[in-house]
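pinging the channel bc i need a second pair of eyes. not urgent but kinda urgent?? the chain im working w is below, pasted from the shared doc
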Amino acid sequence: MQRRTFLAASTAMAATSMVSNTARSQTAANPLTRPWTGPYGGVPPFDQVKVADFKGAWDAAMAEELAEIDAIANNPAPPTFENTIGAMERAGATGDRVGTIYDIWSGTLSTPDVRAVEKEIEPKLAAHNDKILQNEKLFRRIEAVYEARDKAGLTPEQKRLAWVRWNAFVRAGAKLSPAAKARVAEINKELAGLFTTFNQNLLADETDYVLYLDEKDLTGLPHDVREAAAQGAKEHGKAGQYAILNTRSSMDPFLTYSDRRDLREKVWRTYYARGDNGDAHDNNAGIKQILKLRAERAKLRGYPTHAHWRLDDAMAKTPEHAMDLMMRVWPSAVARVHQEVVEMQAVADREKANIKIAPWDYRYYAEKVRAERYALDMNDVKPYLQLEKLREGMHWAAGQLYGFEFTPISDVPVQHPDVRVWKVTRGGQLVGLWYFDPYARTGKRSGAWMNAYRAQQTYEGKITTIVSNNANFVKGAPGQPVLVSWDDGITMFHEFGHALHGLNSEVTYPTLSGTRVPRDYVEFPSQLNENWLPTPEVLNRFALHYQTGKPIPAELVAKINKAHTFRQGFNVTEYLSSALIDMKLHLAGDADIDPRAFEKDELAKLGMPAELPMRHRTPQFGHIFASDGYSAGYYSYLWSEVLDHDAFEAFTEKGGPYDKSVARSLHENIMKVGNTVDPAIQYRAFRGRDPDVKAYLRDKGFPT
């Protein structure tokens, strides 16, 4: 998800008449600030991007937006929805365009020049946003519209937008004293710099630590993993060797299949030490500062902790509700880990390995248990999971559920040769564009994510959305298909679920569009979409062997289904430990926290099994320290997964995964409404009741 939102900007329209001539000339001179032109309602001008233009583009965009905001705040006419809330929807369009391109370069095409711009711009952006959020005249107009919403004849969507705008200002401190406002602004500016440093430190450790191997070091690795490692070495100027990159997509298969325990330990230690090496890129000191500043800011805003502030407008509402859910699941997850370790140790003992299962052994011996118990070797599955075929399967399933058609196009510029674009239509009408950037490269942050380049809206005419999915698959040899793991296939469907949330959006105002919903609800549509990969309809059509073209055998699918709850102890505990530490860090208030010691001590109190680490150790936890993004909110994945499993049972209780009536209800009540309706009300409209955690527990094989 996009990590920065330009406060008053949500559209891609031209500047309004309230902009000064100086700002106009600055905008016209810089290709990054101009309204997007070309087909499909305009597209990002990726072919015109120069890093040297970013600073000037941001300066012009910020000046332009402040002029627009001042015009709204100083309007002599009495405040109305149109001249205040509506005007804010029209403002900041240039910043939205610049921000879209800037975020792409920061996240996927980072260079020293880009990182230098980030260090200068991020604090300026924080200060700029505070100028808007602390504009007293503007807030008084927003509050007047909000308080009169029931008497002003507003539509339900307009009332929701008035509340969203009012709530954002109040939560940011609009009602604070001048001195408190000034301090909040100082904190935000300082945090922006710390976030940038954290992110750049993490990227440096992911880029700089590469393990180069020779042929003799590859025992146990499948052919496709070897090919990917060879290609990675070649791209790093080490042709003839094999590169294990310091990213999850490279680390995970190596730890799963390598017979070399010494190298597994080395790869494991390097990966989980990112940001924690006691060098110039160490993140611990920065984390300590971030936590202190967040705690101070929360108190200034009237909240006991940062966690209370973050969850105040979330679906969970309070940290206590989130903790209650996590602690309901935690004991079952840990108990399952202990069972899994016993099973793995038994295999190691039979092999006379003379070891005690350690974290770098977990994936490796888990695969041996899987093969033994279920006669399932995931290497037998991988030849059927071609990246491009899975992409076709995602498109097909989206067509069955939502009526979408995806057509590849080549008439728009892209930011990198690896990026491809599809036109998305429904019933012959343009819905939007989908950009796909699947491969790892230097300067691209690790992981997988979705971005919205442009939000859907109808307020200023019909504006179609532009969305993207991004991943870090390692390219194989030229002409060879990229084979992905089952878990990576699930991740593809997950991130595509975010894109579908954006593509399905049918709202009036861009601020309420698509994925712009509370943090613990935004993962629900994406978690839900994971359920369509394992369906026979997708597997029989698209899980085709890369050599023979034959579909995955029914008996192999049966084994996958039978092993569905396998290794759920590891999966849930790895994730949930990170979510619990996140919440505990932010519930600690202004305590003087040593990140290393806090992580160790709190995990010990929780009874964290020694055989596995947190999914994201504290010094590399970009979700919570590279921005405010998921801070005190990493629990959201569990919250959304509870919704997901309960919602999917609505399909299985009816006509199955492709039941048209349930799909229609999903579209009408959830996928198309964005944030125009409170998420709890959305879910009740779809399911007929509140979500039940039992479906999640059943899926994991935990006691209900």
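so The longest strand covers residues 429-439. and Residues 1-20 have pLDDT under 50 and may be disordered. — does that match what u expected or am i reading it wrong
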